[in-house]
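step=encode ok
step=design start
structure_in=
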C-alpha cells in the first residue's frame, strides 16, 4: 500500500515537471507567433535572444 502511494506521488511530480516545461516552452514561443503588428516588442525580444 505504501509503495503505491510513493509511486503515485512520484508520477504526479513527474507530470507536474513536464507540464511546467511545456508551459515555459509555450511562453517562450508565443511572441514569435504574434508577429510585429500585434506585438511591438517583438524586434527587441528577438534581438535580446538572438533569434532571426
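sequence_out=
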Amino acid at each position: 500500500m505504501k509503495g503505491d502511494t510513493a509511486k503515485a506521488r512520484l508520477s504526479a511530480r513527474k507530470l507536474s515537471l513536464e507540464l511546467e516545461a511545456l508551459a515555459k516552452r509555450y511562453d517562450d514561443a508565443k511572441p514569435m507567433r504574434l508577429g510585429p503588428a500585434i506585438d511591438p516588442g517583438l524586434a527587441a525580444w528577438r534581438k535580446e535572444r538572438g533569434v532571426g
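step=design ok
step=annotate ok -> The two ends are 54 Å apart (CA to CA).
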